[in-house]
Amino acid sequence: MTTAVHSDDYPPFQLNRPRFDQSTFLGRYRHFLDVIDPRTLFTTKERLEECVKLLDDYKEGTLPEGTTDKQLWEAQKIKQVLKSGSWKILECKTIMEKSRKVMKFYTYLYLIVLSAIWLSL
């Protein structure tokens, strides 16, 4: 089995295990921050597929040469967050469309509140 290159910043990779110690508050807190990382919103479908393939290679013992623990932990995070349905893969166009809808909603809400205030005078 091919093993990953160890990094001082990352513990040795363990498939389907949390990266941070769950028996301490700090470990649970760091795990929470890792899971809600908003950068995963910008993950492309291609990147998700790469992560799934890397983890499959790990299971089969055929890791590419030079694969690091950091790459494996990041791949597991992306796969778990995006495949679990916690976040949807959003492309910039979708994000902009959602932003426009939200802004339109708040604009209408603002106008309604201003109208109500004006009518109460």
UniProtKB/TrEMBL annotation:
One GO location term (cellular component): mitochondrial inner membrane
Membrane topology qualifier: Multi-pass membrane protein
Keywords: Amino-acid transport, Membrane, Mitochondrion, Transmembrane, Transmembrane helix, Transport
Listed GO biological process terms: amino acid transport; mitochondrial transmembrane transport
Membrane-spanning intervals of the chain: 103-120
Cell compartment(s), UniProt: Mitochondrion membrane
Keyword Mitochondrion recorded: yes
GO molecular function: monoatomic ion transmembrane transporter activity
Major subcellular location class: mitochondrion
Family of this protein: Belongs to the sideroflexin family.
Matching PANTHER family: SIDEROFLEXIN, SIDEROFLEXIN-5
Protein name: Sideroflexin-5
Originating species: Holothuria leucospilota
